[in-house]
Amino acid sequence: MSLSDKKFKKWLTMDTASFLYSAMQREEYSMIFRFSAMMEEEVKNDCLQSAIYKMKKRFPQFFFRIRKGVFWYYFEENKSPGPFVKEDVSDPCMPVRFNEDGGWLIRFFSYKKRISIEVFHAVADGLGALTFFKTLLAQYLRECGYAIPNEKGVFDINEEPNPDEWEDAYSRYIGKYSRGLKLKKIVYNNIGTAEPLYTFNVTMGFIRPSQMKEAAAKYGCTVSEYLASVLIYILIQKQKSEGFYRQKPISVSVPINLRAFFQTKTLRNFIQTVQVLVDPGLGEYSFNDITKIVSAQMKLNSSQQMLRAHFTKNVKLQSNLFLKLIPIFIKDIVLKSRYARDGVKSFSVLLTNVGVFKVPQEMQRHIRHMEAIQGQTTIPRPQVAIISYADTMEITFSGTQKENDLEREFFRFLIKDGIAVKIESNRKAAIGKGEEN
């Protein structure tokens, strides 16, 4: 369909992941994720607002709103004023409300030297949102008077939007065979004490990537495999300390970027989660044992064939003619109950590594470091997000639980393994004291 087709510009169907996130959204569950850039200079809000307005034509899919039909959710062109830059908040990633704040699914914040965006997961995955954010930062710097080239993932905002960027890649690469994830019905859920509603705890650790790579190399695994192993090791000890007679399996859910396996330019959702699991009920494990198991499971579960079979099942389910005719309010109930049973409680912690944020050389001196935060789950436990930029890797624990034992022991493990960590937190009683920005 051509770009001149007005109907296509005004609405967009949802992919499988988008529909799920829209149906699941509620006050105690926030499928919002945040990316922040700590700049070297104070943020100029007028320049940032001007850059946002200029992004609308190039990235129209980020400026849609969600509508609820009789049978399905869908995206629609948003004609509301804005979105506007807001002063940053102490509790980020608050749940989205489709009929408030102009219906915007993306938020923009600034505070001193920090620029942040929050994106509802139905709009894009981490890579898509980071592509948008990188181009926004480049345009912001241009508005401030700096010359920034269109390279290393910075898009030319004067070009017409590319329809390939809002492709439903799940449907394009649907396979012949389908297979759901083999989820353990009973795992250690790592549930803590819930904070009052709308209280969101964030703890960040800042690390040198070179030290992290050296630590992972000692065990012959990747950085993501190493960090997943640390989480499993800590959670095994945590479960033991709670005195349960029978030890449950520890499971880490890891989102995989499908663009590494299937060629597409889409900026929408195109990820598939895999799970790595260690069962302490089978015996004792050294940390080295755990890294070997995690590394083997990641390789086994991350084949193109396995990943395609997993998302094929979801696509076929959504395209089922019988399900299409079920009213949306019934779909919402079914999806929420299914997620409560097979979703959030089928793993112990979620770990997402969005990788290295690369920018043109002309931008590098303007950005100090990057930050990533995941929104709250339906149960009080932390989620973990990782992003790297230049000589800083940032690891965030975020959630609604009062306890900070997981992040405390996690960072202590890294320090004992020779990795220096600087910690910052919005908690009243932080794990460690960081520098003031």
If you had to describe this structure to a student in words, what would you say it looks like?
With 437 residues, the protein is of the alpha+beta class. It has 13 helices and 15 strands. Helix 3 crosses helix 4. The chain is globular and about 60 Å long.
Structural class: alpha+beta
- Which regions have little confidence, pLDDT < 50, spanning 5+ residues? 1-8, 432-437
Q: Biggest sheet: strands side by side, in what order?
A: 10-9-11-13-14-8-15
Instruction: Assess the beta-strand content as a share of residues.
Output: 15-25%
Radius of gyration, in Å, reads 21 Å
Principal-axis shape equals globular
Order of helices and strands: HEHEHEEEEEHHEHHEEHHHHEHEEEHE
Question: In angstroms, what separates the terminal alpha carbons?
Answer: 48 Å
Please count the helical segments. Answer: 13
Mean pLDDT rating: 89
Number of strands: 15
